[in-house]
Amino acid sequence: MSYPGMPRALRDLAILIAIAVALRFALPSVSLATEVLIFAIAVSGCTLLLGYAGLMSFGQSVFFGGGSYLTAFAMKGLGLTLLPALAAGAVSGAVLAGIIGLFAIRKRGVYFVMLTLAFSQVAYFVILAFGHVTGGENGMTDVPRPALVLAGHTVSALATPGAFYVVTATVFCLVFVALGRLVRSPFGAVVVALRENDTRAEALGFNVLQYKWATFVVAGAVTGLAGALHAMFIGYVPLNNIEFEMSERIVIMAILGGTGSFYGAFLGALIYNVAADVLSSIWPRWLFGVGVTLIAVVLLLRGGAWSGVEIVLRRLSGRGGRP
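RE: above sequence
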């Protein structure tokens, strides 16, 4: 569907708002809808790395968990309101990604993957080692949900699930529009060129390490922002936010949905979290079903579930069915 007179960013924003509104009423609870959007934001960072930069990172839990813990510290210790708290989450993720990226992006392939995995394990044990501050295996409890304050006036206390969903949906829309603009910019074109052949890009004069590092930092900031929202959402920072399992979950969601589009990040988060919420209550082995689904997607839909959606949409619009 095309809108000749509408800018691409505005069109994307309209679609994302429609998705957020439909999700609120399509799912059985507003809490589940909120969780889907939070993880969609986290997965979008992984999609930027894997789908556009060609970097498979198993260190996303560092940024997600780091955003959760550091934002919780800031809210409890400094009494931050919503916007500064969200900024703290994004900055936390960006700083952690910046530090890890200085080491990781110098390696390629499996070495890059293993370095990000190693940093994930280090972060996990750091949180355990400082259990007297972080809560250790019990996690950090009593995390407040900050109020939305503008120009010194409290707009909303965000005490209800519906109010917090509106905030989460707003962040979701803005992040996805911003990432869409980023990958369509000259910067994004260079990042894709690096994915295809970084040796040729370097021969053309582009600083490969600099572009990879910047992409890694952006992905970390987005994932840290999602971690901050998650801490506010559940009022608690569980240890598994920074475990390797969280990185694994984010990567699975990215592959399920498809790494060729940020809409795939949303679809992957939707499939995984709905399965976790609905199937887990009726089938203790629900992860087996997720595993089978992942195998089927990898074998039959190389572009993820979103590529299947695109095929259907093209056929309905009469433009053919090629992915």
